[in-house]
Protein backbone atom coordinates (compact mmCIF):
# COMPACT_ATOMS: atom_id res chain seq x y z
CA UNK A 1 0.00 0.00 0.00
CA UNK A 2 1.02 3.57 -0.63
CA UNK A 3 3.36 4.83 2.09
CA UNK A 4 1.77 8.05 3.18
CA UNK A 5 4.90 9.28 4.92
CA UNK A 6 7.61 7.88 7.12
CA UNK A 7 6.67 8.92 10.62
CA UNK A 8 3.27 8.67 12.16
CA UNK A 9 2.95 10.71 15.34
CA UNK A 10 -0.15 10.73 17.52
CA UNK A 11 -1.12 13.22 20.24
CA UNK A 12 0.34 12.69 23.69
CA UNK A 13 -2.98 11.88 25.34
CA UNK A 14 -4.21 9.49 22.64
CA UNK A 15 -6.31 6.57 24.00
CA UNK A 16 -4.46 3.35 23.26
CA UNK A 17 -5.92 0.04 24.26
CA UNK A 18 -8.42 -2.59 23.33
CA UNK A 19 -12.02 -3.67 23.73
CA UNK A 20 -14.05 -6.66 24.73
CA UNK A 21 -17.49 -7.54 26.03
CA UNK A 22 -18.96 -9.31 29.05
CA UNK A 23 -20.38 -12.39 27.32
CA UNK A 24 -17.22 -12.85 25.30
CA UNK A 25 -14.73 -12.84 28.15
CA UNK A 26 -16.21 -13.04 31.65
CA UNK A 27 -17.10 -16.69 32.03
CA UNK A 28 -18.85 -17.59 35.32
CA UNK A 29 -22.02 -17.56 33.25
CA UNK A 30 -24.14 -19.05 36.03
CA UNK A 31 -22.11 -18.10 39.06
CA UNK A 32 -22.67 -15.61 41.87
CA UNK A 33 -26.23 -14.78 40.92
CA UNK A 34 -25.81 -14.19 37.19
CA UNK A 35 -28.99 -15.00 35.34
CA UNK A 36 -29.37 -16.32 31.82
CA UNK A 37 -29.01 -14.11 28.76
CA UNK A 38 -30.03 -14.95 25.21
CA UNK A 39 -26.64 -16.52 24.49
CA UNK A 40 -26.76 -18.88 27.46
CA UNK A 41 -30.26 -19.87 26.48
CA UNK A 42 -29.55 -20.29 22.80
CA UNK A 43 -26.55 -22.47 23.51
CA UNK A 44 -28.69 -24.60 25.78
CA UNK A 45 -31.27 -25.24 23.08
CA UNK A 46 -29.07 -25.24 19.95
CA UNK A 47 -25.39 -25.97 20.74
CA UNK A 48 -24.80 -27.10 17.16
CA UNK A 49 -25.16 -23.50 16.01
CA UNK A 50 -21.82 -22.66 17.62
CA UNK A 51 -18.47 -23.46 16.01
CA UNK A 52 -17.21 -26.78 17.39
CA UNK A 53 -20.18 -26.69 19.78
CA UNK A 54 -18.32 -24.23 22.00
CA UNK A 55 -20.74 -21.86 23.67
CA UNK A 56 -20.57 -18.76 25.84
CA UNK A 57 -19.84 -20.95 28.84
CA UNK A 58 -16.31 -21.38 27.65
CA UNK A 59 -14.80 -17.91 27.67
CA UNK A 60 -11.43 -16.61 28.81
CA UNK A 61 -12.55 -16.36 32.46
CA UNK A 62 -11.85 -12.68 33.04
CA UNK A 63 -14.26 -13.00 35.97
CA UNK A 64 -11.60 -14.94 37.82
CA UNK A 65 -8.47 -13.63 36.12
CA UNK A 66 -9.16 -9.90 35.85
CA UNK A 67 -6.27 -8.92 38.12
CA UNK A 68 -3.73 -10.79 36.02
CA UNK A 69 -5.28 -9.38 32.82
CA UNK A 70 -5.30 -5.77 33.97
CA UNK A 71 -1.70 -6.03 35.15
CA UNK A 72 -0.81 -7.35 31.73
CA UNK A 73 -2.58 -4.42 30.08
CA UNK A 74 -0.44 -2.11 32.15
CA UNK A 75 2.72 -4.02 31.32
CA UNK A 76 1.85 -3.76 27.65
CA UNK A 77 1.46 0.00 27.94
CA UNK A 78 -2.30 0.31 27.45
CA UNK A 79 -3.90 3.41 28.95
CA UNK A 80 -7.55 2.36 28.44
CA UNK A 81 -9.78 -0.67 28.04
CA UNK A 82 -13.41 -0.99 27.04
CA UNK A 83 -15.59 -3.69 28.50
CA UNK A 84 -19.31 -4.10 29.04
CA UNK A 85 -21.46 -4.71 32.07
CA UNK A 86 -23.53 -7.83 31.85
CA UNK A 87 -27.13 -6.75 32.39
CA UNK A 88 -28.18 -10.25 33.44
CA UNK A 89 -25.36 -10.35 35.98
CA UNK A 90 -26.14 -6.98 37.55
CA UNK A 91 -29.93 -6.87 37.55
CA UNK A 92 -32.01 -9.83 38.59
CA UNK A 93 -35.34 -10.80 37.16
CA UNK A 94 -37.10 -9.32 40.21
CA UNK A 95 -35.27 -6.04 39.37
CA UNK A 96 -33.10 -6.12 42.46
CA UNK A 97 -29.35 -5.52 42.20
CA UNK A 98 -26.99 -8.48 42.45
CA UNK A 99 -24.46 -7.45 45.10
CA UNK A 100 -21.93 -10.05 43.92
CA UNK A 101 -21.92 -8.35 40.52
CA UNK A 102 -21.44 -4.93 42.10
CA UNK A 103 -18.45 -6.31 43.97
CA UNK A 104 -16.97 -7.78 40.79
CA UNK A 105 -17.34 -4.63 38.68
CA UNK A 106 -16.05 -2.46 41.53
CA UNK A 107 -12.98 -4.67 41.78
CA UNK A 108 -12.40 -4.49 38.04
CA UNK A 109 -12.78 -0.70 37.91
CA UNK A 110 -10.59 -0.13 40.96
CA UNK A 111 -7.88 -2.48 39.72
CA UNK A 112 -7.87 -0.70 36.37
CA UNK A 113 -7.54 2.71 37.97
CA UNK A 114 -4.74 1.50 40.24
CA UNK A 115 -2.90 0.29 37.13
CA UNK A 116 -3.40 3.43 35.08
CA UNK A 117 -5.83 1.79 32.66
CA UNK A 118 -8.90 3.96 32.18
CA UNK A 119 -12.21 2.07 32.18
CA UNK A 120 -14.48 2.75 29.21
CA UNK A 121 -17.78 1.08 30.00
CA UNK A 122 -20.39 -0.02 27.53
CA UNK A 123 -23.87 -0.96 28.71
CA UNK A 124 -25.22 -3.28 26.04
CA UNK A 125 -23.21 -5.64 23.90
CA UNK A 126 -25.80 -8.01 22.38
CA UNK A 127 -26.62 -9.72 25.68
CA UNK A 128 -30.32 -9.33 26.40
CA UNK A 129 -31.31 -11.00 29.68
CA UNK A 130 -33.52 -13.97 28.89
CA UNK A 131 -36.18 -12.82 31.34
CA UNK A 132 -36.58 -9.70 29.19
CA UNK A 133 -36.37 -11.50 25.85
CA UNK A 134 -39.27 -13.57 27.14
CA UNK A 135 -41.42 -10.45 27.22
CA UNK A 136 -40.38 -9.42 23.69
CA UNK A 137 -36.87 -8.00 24.15
CA UNK A 138 -36.25 -4.79 22.20
CA UNK A 139 -39.65 -5.04 20.56
CA UNK A 140 -41.30 -4.18 23.86
CA UNK A 141 -41.32 -0.53 25.05
CA UNK A 142 -41.28 -1.84 28.64
CA UNK A 143 -37.81 -3.32 28.00
CA UNK A 144 -36.62 0.16 27.00
CA UNK A 145 -37.65 1.41 30.43
CA UNK A 146 -35.96 -1.55 32.08
CA UNK A 147 -32.76 -0.65 30.18
CA UNK A 148 -33.10 2.97 31.28
CA UNK A 149 -33.24 1.79 34.91
CA UNK A 150 -30.25 -0.51 34.37
CA UNK A 151 -28.23 2.36 32.87
CA UNK A 152 -29.13 4.70 35.73
CA UNK A 153 -28.13 2.07 38.27
CA UNK A 154 -24.74 1.62 36.56
CA UNK A 155 -24.06 5.37 36.65
CA UNK A 156 -25.04 5.55 40.32
CA UNK A 157 -22.90 2.59 41.26
CA UNK A 158 -19.78 3.25 39.20
CA UNK A 159 -20.00 6.77 37.78
CA UNK A 160 -17.93 8.32 40.54
CA UNK A 161 -14.89 6.61 38.99
CA UNK A 162 -15.90 5.84 35.42
CA UNK A 163 -15.85 8.87 33.12
CA UNK A 164 -16.39 7.30 29.70
CA UNK A 165 -19.72 5.61 29.12
CA UNK A 166 -21.27 4.06 26.04
CA UNK A 167 -24.91 3.12 25.74
CA UNK A 168 -24.64 0.41 23.07
CA UNK A 169 -22.13 -1.44 20.98
CA UNK A 170 -23.11 -1.69 17.31
CA UNK A 171 -26.84 -1.03 17.66
CA UNK A 172 -27.46 -2.41 14.19
CA UNK A 173 -26.30 -5.89 15.13
CA UNK A 174 -29.29 -7.02 17.22
CA UNK A 175 -31.48 -5.61 14.43
CA UNK A 176 -29.63 -7.09 11.48
CA UNK A 177 -28.59 -10.39 13.01
CA UNK A 178 -31.58 -10.99 15.28
CA UNK A 179 -34.48 -9.68 13.18
CA UNK A 180 -33.24 -9.65 9.58
CA UNK A 181 -31.05 -12.72 9.56
CA UNK A 182 -30.54 -15.96 11.37
CA UNK A 183 -27.35 -15.07 13.18
CA UNK A 184 -28.52 -14.03 16.62
CA UNK A 185 -31.41 -15.12 18.78
CA UNK A 186 -34.40 -14.79 18.26
CA UNK A 187 -33.51 -15.42 14.56
CA UNK A 188 -36.53 -13.66 13.13
CA UNK A 189 -36.70 -12.26 9.59
CA UNK A 190 -39.22 -9.46 9.67
CA UNK A 191 -38.34 -5.95 8.47
CA UNK A 192 -41.15 -4.26 10.38
CA UNK A 193 -40.21 -5.87 13.66
CA UNK A 194 -36.56 -5.06 12.91
CA UNK A 195 -37.41 -1.37 12.49
CA UNK A 196 -39.25 -1.43 15.82
CA UNK A 197 -36.22 -3.00 17.48
CA UNK A 198 -33.85 -0.44 15.93
CA UNK A 199 -36.07 2.44 16.98
CA UNK A 200 -36.34 1.17 20.56
CA UNK A 201 -32.58 0.64 20.82
CA UNK A 202 -31.95 4.22 19.72
CA UNK A 203 -34.60 5.49 22.10
CA UNK A 204 -33.03 3.52 24.95
CA UNK A 205 -29.68 5.10 24.12
CA UNK A 206 -31.15 8.60 24.39
CA UNK A 207 -32.92 7.76 27.65
CA UNK A 208 -29.65 6.52 29.13
CA UNK A 209 -27.95 9.75 28.04
CA UNK A 210 -30.78 11.70 29.68
CA UNK A 211 -30.29 9.81 32.95
CA UNK A 212 -26.55 10.34 32.81
CA UNK A 213 -26.86 14.10 32.33
CA UNK A 214 -29.21 14.39 35.29
CA UNK A 215 -26.54 12.98 37.59
CA UNK A 216 -23.88 15.54 36.66
CA UNK A 217 -20.98 13.19 37.19
CA UNK A 218 -18.54 15.13 35.04
CA UNK A 219 -17.85 12.41 32.48
CA UNK A 220 -18.88 11.78 28.91
CA UNK A 221 -21.39 9.47 27.33
CA UNK A 222 -21.56 8.19 23.79
CA UNK A 223 -22.45 5.23 21.65
CA UNK A 224 -20.36 2.79 19.65
CA UNK A 225 -21.39 2.42 16.03
CA UNK A 226 -19.93 0.10 13.42
CA UNK A 227 -19.63 2.31 10.38
CA UNK A 228 -19.36 0.53 7.07
CA UNK A 229 -18.67 3.21 4.45
CA UNK A 230 -20.81 2.46 1.44
CA UNK A 231 -19.05 2.65 -1.94
CA UNK A 232 -21.12 2.48 -5.14
CA UNK A 233 -19.94 0.29 -8.03
CA UNK A 234 -20.20 3.20 -10.46
CA UNK A 235 -21.53 6.72 -10.74
CA UNK A 236 -24.66 5.56 -12.51
CA UNK A 237 -27.85 6.89 -11.02
CA UNK A 238 -28.99 3.37 -10.06
CA UNK A 239 -25.76 2.43 -8.30
CA UNK A 240 -25.62 5.74 -6.45
CA UNK A 241 -29.21 5.33 -5.33
CA UNK A 242 -28.57 1.78 -4.10
CA UNK A 243 -25.46 2.86 -2.22
CA UNK A 244 -27.36 5.73 -0.66
CA UNK A 245 -30.11 3.42 0.63
CA UNK A 246 -27.53 1.05 2.08
CA UNK A 247 -25.83 3.97 3.82
CA UNK A 248 -29.16 5.29 5.07
CA UNK A 249 -30.29 2.01 6.59
CA UNK A 250 -27.00 0.59 7.76
CA UNK A 251 -25.13 3.70 8.92
CA UNK A 252 -27.16 6.86 9.07
CA UNK A 253 -30.16 5.48 10.96
CA UNK A 254 -27.81 5.16 13.94
CA UNK A 255 -25.24 7.88 13.28
CA UNK A 256 -27.64 10.76 12.54
CA UNK A 257 -29.89 9.81 15.42
CA UNK A 258 -27.05 9.66 17.95
CA UNK A 259 -25.16 12.77 16.89
CA UNK A 260 -27.82 15.01 15.34
CA UNK A 261 -30.83 13.86 17.33
CA UNK A 262 -33.00 12.92 14.36
CA UNK A 263 -33.66 10.08 12.00
CA UNK A 264 -32.74 11.20 8.46
CA UNK A 265 -35.78 12.59 6.60
CA UNK A 266 -35.08 10.26 3.68
CA UNK A 267 -35.13 7.27 6.00
CA UNK A 268 -38.49 8.29 7.44
CA UNK A 269 -39.86 8.62 3.90
CA UNK A 270 -38.49 5.21 2.99
CA UNK A 271 -39.90 3.56 6.09
CA UNK A 272 -43.33 5.14 5.46
CA UNK A 273 -43.35 4.11 1.82
CA UNK A 274 -42.57 0.52 2.75
CA UNK A 275 -45.15 0.49 5.50
CA UNK A 276 -42.53 -0.18 8.14
CA UNK A 277 -43.16 2.71 10.50
CA UNK A 278 -42.63 1.64 14.13
CA UNK A 279 -44.88 2.51 17.02
CA UNK A 280 -43.57 5.69 18.61
CA UNK A 281 -44.71 8.62 20.69
CA UNK A 282 -44.03 12.33 20.29
CA UNK A 283 -42.57 12.44 23.79
CA UNK A 284 -40.05 9.74 22.94
CA UNK A 285 -39.04 11.53 19.75
CA UNK A 286 -38.38 14.63 21.88
CA UNK A 287 -36.11 12.56 24.12
CA UNK A 288 -34.13 11.48 21.05
CA UNK A 289 -33.87 15.05 19.84
CA UNK A 290 -32.70 16.43 23.16
CA UNK A 291 -30.22 13.77 24.21
CA UNK A 292 -27.42 13.40 21.72
CA UNK A 293 -24.02 11.88 22.41
CA UNK A 294 -20.93 13.69 23.71
CA UNK A 295 -18.56 11.42 21.84
CA UNK A 296 -18.58 8.51 19.43
CA UNK A 297 -16.87 5.17 19.27
CA UNK A 298 -16.48 3.85 15.76
CA UNK A 299 -15.90 0.18 15.06
CA UNK A 300 -14.37 -0.23 11.64
CA UNK A 301 -13.76 -3.59 10.01
CA UNK A 302 -14.86 -3.38 6.41
CA UNK A 303 -16.63 -1.24 3.83
CA UNK A 304 -19.71 -2.21 1.81
CA UNK A 305 -19.48 -2.34 -1.96
CA UNK A 306 -22.92 -1.66 -3.32
CA UNK A 307 -24.61 -1.88 -6.69
CA UNK A 308 -28.16 -1.50 -7.96
CA UNK A 309 -30.42 -4.48 -7.37
CA UNK A 310 -29.77 -7.11 -10.01
CA UNK A 311 -30.53 -10.37 -8.28
CA UNK A 312 -34.10 -11.59 -8.33
CA UNK A 313 -36.06 -11.58 -5.13
CA UNK A 314 -37.47 -15.06 -4.62
CA UNK A 315 -41.23 -15.28 -4.63
CA UNK A 316 -42.63 -15.01 -1.17
CA UNK A 317 -39.23 -14.04 0.30
CA UNK A 318 -39.57 -11.56 3.14
CA UNK A 319 -38.65 -7.93 2.59
CA UNK A 320 -35.19 -7.03 3.99
CA UNK A 321 -32.79 -4.11 3.40
CA UNK A 322 -31.17 -6.25 0.72
CA UNK A 323 -34.39 -6.15 -1.27
CA UNK A 324 -33.19 -2.67 -2.28
CA UNK A 325 -29.55 -3.16 -3.22
CA UNK A 326 -26.97 -5.81 -3.96
CA UNK A 327 -23.41 -6.13 -2.81
CA UNK A 328 -20.77 -6.64 -5.46
CA UNK A 329 -17.38 -8.22 -5.45
CA UNK A 330 -14.89 -5.51 -6.27
CA UNK A 331 -12.16 -6.98 -8.46
CA UNK A 332 -8.75 -6.98 -6.82
CA UNK A 333 -10.00 -6.19 -3.36
CA UNK A 334 -7.86 -7.24 -0.41
CA UNK A 335 -9.46 -9.87 1.78
CA UNK A 336 -8.79 -11.33 5.18
CA UNK A 337 -9.00 -14.97 4.04
CA UNK A 338 -9.87 -16.23 7.51
CA UNK A 339 -12.91 -14.10 8.19
CA UNK A 340 -13.75 -13.32 4.55
CA UNK A 341 -13.98 -9.60 5.27
CA UNK A 342 -12.51 -7.03 2.90
CA UNK A 343 -9.53 -5.10 4.21
CA UNK A 344 -9.74 -1.51 3.07
CA UNK A 345 -7.62 0.71 5.27
CA UNK A 346 -8.62 3.97 3.61
CA UNK A 347 -12.17 3.42 4.91
CA UNK A 348 -10.95 4.69 8.28
CA UNK A 349 -9.95 7.97 6.67
CA UNK A 350 -13.17 8.32 4.68
CA UNK A 351 -15.39 7.77 7.68
CA UNK A 352 -13.32 10.21 9.74
CA UNK A 353 -13.70 12.93 7.13
CA UNK A 354 -17.43 12.24 7.01
CA UNK A 355 -17.67 12.72 10.78
CA UNK A 356 -15.60 15.92 10.57
CA UNK A 357 -17.71 17.42 7.79
CA UNK A 358 -21.22 16.15 8.49
CA UNK A 359 -21.38 15.29 12.17
CA UNK A 360 -20.34 18.45 14.01
CA UNK A 361 -16.69 17.33 14.01
CA UNK A 362 -17.61 15.46 17.18
CA UNK A 363 -14.73 13.79 18.96
CA UNK A 364 -14.52 10.07 18.40
CA UNK A 365 -12.16 7.16 18.61
CA UNK A 366 -11.69 3.93 16.76
CA UNK A 367 -13.30 1.66 19.31
CA UNK A 368 -12.75 -1.59 17.38
CA UNK A 369 -10.61 -2.60 14.45
CA UNK A 370 -8.96 -5.96 14.16
CA UNK A 371 -8.04 -9.02 12.25
CA UNK A 372 -9.48 -12.44 13.03
CA UNK A 373 -7.15 -15.27 12.09
CA UNK A 374 -7.82 -19.00 12.06
CA UNK A 375 -5.20 -21.49 13.19
CA UNK A 376 -2.78 -18.97 14.62
CA UNK A 377 -0.79 -21.72 16.37
CA UNK A 378 0.99 -22.34 13.10
CA UNK A 379 2.65 -18.94 13.40
CA UNK A 380 4.22 -19.90 16.71
CA UNK A 381 7.99 -19.59 17.06
CA UNK A 382 9.57 -20.55 20.39
CA UNK A 383 6.22 -20.45 22.15
CA UNK A 384 5.13 -17.05 20.83
CA UNK A 385 2.75 -16.23 18.00
CA UNK A 386 4.60 -14.09 15.45
CA UNK A 387 1.60 -12.22 14.07
CA UNK A 388 3.29 -9.91 11.58
CA UNK A 389 0.06 -9.83 9.57
CA UNK A 390 -1.68 -8.19 12.54
CA UNK A 391 1.11 -5.62 12.91
CA UNK A 392 0.73 -4.78 9.25
CA UNK A 393 -3.07 -4.62 9.56
CA UNK A 394 -2.91 -2.21 12.49
CA UNK A 395 -0.17 -0.02 11.09
CA UNK A 396 -1.82 0.33 7.68
CA UNK A 397 -5.05 1.44 9.35
CA UNK A 398 -3.20 3.80 11.66
CA UNK A 399 -1.50 5.49 8.73
CA UNK A 400 -4.88 6.54 7.40
CA UNK A 401 -6.09 7.47 10.88
CA UNK A 402 -3.03 9.65 11.21
CA UNK A 403 -3.77 11.39 7.93
CA UNK A 404 -7.35 12.07 9.15
CA UNK A 405 -5.96 13.49 12.37
CA UNK A 406 -3.67 15.80 10.46
CA UNK A 407 -6.61 17.03 8.43
CA UNK A 408 -8.57 18.23 11.42
CA UNK A 409 -10.54 15.14 12.43
CA UNK A 410 -11.22 15.02 16.12
CA UNK A 411 -9.83 11.52 16.57
CA UNK A 412 -8.94 10.65 20.15
CA UNK A 413 -7.79 7.07 20.21
CA UNK A 414 -7.48 3.57 18.84
CA UNK A 415 -8.64 0.35 20.47
CA UNK A 416 -7.94 -3.02 18.94
CA UNK A 417 -10.47 -5.79 18.98
CA UNK A 418 -9.38 -7.38 21.27
CA UNK A 419 -7.03 -7.72 24.24
CA UNK A 420 -6.93 -11.49 24.50
CA UNK A 421 -8.43 -14.00 22.12
CA UNK A 422 -12.04 -14.31 23.06
CA UNK A 423 -15.14 -16.30 22.41
CA UNK A 424 -17.21 -14.92 19.59
CA UNK A 425 -20.87 -15.04 18.64
CA UNK A 426 -21.38 -18.33 16.73
CA UNK A 427 -17.73 -18.48 15.60
CA UNK A 428 -16.55 -19.29 19.12
CA UNK A 429 -12.73 -19.46 18.97
CA UNK A 430 -12.47 -19.98 15.22
CA UNK A 431 -10.94 -16.57 14.55
CA UNK A 432 -8.41 -15.17 16.98
CA UNK A 433 -8.17 -11.41 17.33
CA UNK A 434 -6.14 -10.75 20.47
CA UNK A 435 -2.83 -9.17 21.33
CA UNK A 436 -2.65 -12.04 23.79
CA UNK A 437 -3.08 -15.71 23.01
CA UNK A 438 -5.42 -17.83 25.11
CA UNK A 439 -4.59 -21.50 25.51
CA UNK A 440 -7.88 -23.35 25.74
CA UNK A 441 -6.11 -26.55 26.75
CA UNK A 442 -4.13 -25.04 29.57
CA UNK A 443 -6.48 -23.15 31.87
CA UNK A 444 -6.76 -20.27 29.41
CA UNK A 445 -3.08 -19.42 29.87
CA UNK A 446 -2.30 -15.94 28.51
CA UNK A 447 0.74 -15.39 26.27
CA UNK A 448 1.32 -12.05 24.53
CA UNK A 449 1.88 -12.26 20.79
CA UNK A 450 4.52 -10.32 18.88
CA UNK A 451 1.96 -7.60 18.05
CA UNK A 452 1.50 -6.88 21.77
CA UNK A 453 5.12 -5.82 22.11
CA UNK A 454 5.07 -3.91 18.84
CA UNK A 455 1.99 -2.02 20.06
CA UNK A 456 3.69 -1.29 23.38
CA UNK A 457 6.58 0.31 21.54
CA UNK A 458 4.16 2.33 19.44
CA UNK A 459 2.41 3.60 22.59
CA UNK A 460 5.72 4.48 24.23
CA UNK A 461 6.70 6.53 21.18
CA UNK A 462 3.16 7.78 20.47
CA UNK A 463 3.77 6.72 16.92
CA UNK A 464 5.75 4.49 14.65
C1 LIG B 1 -17.78 -6.77 16.31
C2 LIG B 1 -18.32 -7.03 17.69
C3 LIG B 1 -17.44 -7.87 18.56
C4 LIG B 1 -16.56 -8.89 17.86
C5 LIG B 1 -16.04 -8.41 16.52
C6 LIG B 1 -15.39 -9.47 15.66
O1 LIG B 1 -18.83 -6.61 15.43
O2 LIG B 1 -18.56 -5.82 18.39
O3 LIG B 1 -18.24 -8.37 19.59
O4 LIG B 1 -17.06 -10.15 17.92
O5 LIG B 1 -17.03 -7.80 15.76
O6 LIG B 1 -16.33 -10.21 14.94
P1 LIG B 1 -16.40 -11.79 14.95
O7 LIG B 1 -16.12 -12.19 16.34
O8 LIG B 1 -17.76 -12.14 14.50
O9 LIG B 1 -15.35 -12.26 13.98
In short:
This protein is of the alpha/beta class and 464 residues long.
Question: In terms of topology, how is this protein built?
Answer:
Elements: E1 15-19, H1 22-25, H2 38-45, H3 62-75, E2 80-84, H4 87-90, H5 99-114, E3 118-122, H6 130-133, H7 141-158, E4 164-169, H8 172-179, H9 191-215, E5 220-226, E6 230-232, H10 237-260, H11 265-273, H12 282-290, E7 295-299, E8 304-307, E9 326-327, H13 346-358, E10 364-368, E11 373-374, E12 380-381, E13 384-385, H14 388-406, E14 411-417, E15 431-432, E16 436-439, E17 445-448, H15 450-461
Parallel strand pairs: 1-2, 1-14, 2-3, 3-4, 4-5, 5-7, 6-8, 7-10, 10-14
Antiparallel strand pairs: 8-9, 11-15, 12-13, 16-17
Helix pairs in contact: 3-5, 7-9, 8-9, 9-12, 13-14
The site of 6-O-phosphono-beta-D-galactopyranose (BGP) has 14 residues, from loops.
InterPro entries: GH, Glyco_hydro_1, Glyco_hydro_1_AS
GO cellular component, one term: cytosol
Keywords: Glycosidase, Hydrolase
Outline the structure in words.
With 464 residues, the protein is of the alpha/beta class. It has one domain: Glycosidases (TIM Barrel), CATH 3.20.20. It has helices spanning 22-25, 38-45, 62-75, 87-90, 99-114, 130-133, 141-158, 172-179, 191-215, 237-260, 265-273, 282-290, 346-358, 388-406, 450-461, and strands spanning 15-19, 80-84, 118-122, 164-169, 220-226, 230-232, 295-299, 304-307, 326-327, 364-368, 373-374, 380-381, 384-385, 411-417, 431-432, 436-439, 445-448. The chain has an 8-stranded parallel barrel with strand order 1-2-3-4-5-7-10-14, surrounded by 4 helices. The chain has a 3-stranded mixed sheet with strand order 6-8-9, with helices on one face. The structure holds 6-O-phosphono-beta-D-galactopyranose. This is Glycoside hydrolase family 1 protein.
